[in-house]
Amino acid sequence: MDIPSKLNISDYEFRLVIGRTKIDYDLDKEEQNRKKHSYSLESAVHLLERIILPLNTPPPHITSDPFIENDEIRHMHMSVDDDGKVVFMVTTMRQDEIVRVISFRRAHKNERTQFYKLTGYQEMQDQGLQK
Question: Domains plus CATH for the chain?
């Protein structure tokens, strides 16, 4: 399975080694993210696993072109959580095939509109608002 293509990113920007790749997050940032965005970074780990693992039918998702922030290559992703809400996360690749979740939150209205235009997926509460 071609995971970089599935995520719509270049091979050189993504490394996945089955049995070795891990998805993690900063435990200290977990509490901050919960307070600020009401989402757990652990939930982002589970969502990424659903998107990446070939055993699952992934939810709709999109990935941005890479950008540099804090001297590292990052990607923005939008997908759908278990409650059907469109969510937004930022990740980076670390050494030893570690995908690091940096932030995870519910997508803003304009981001949900963009997600709908690109994937056709629309949250229940946003239906009827699109033209």
Answer: 3-126 (3.10.450.530)
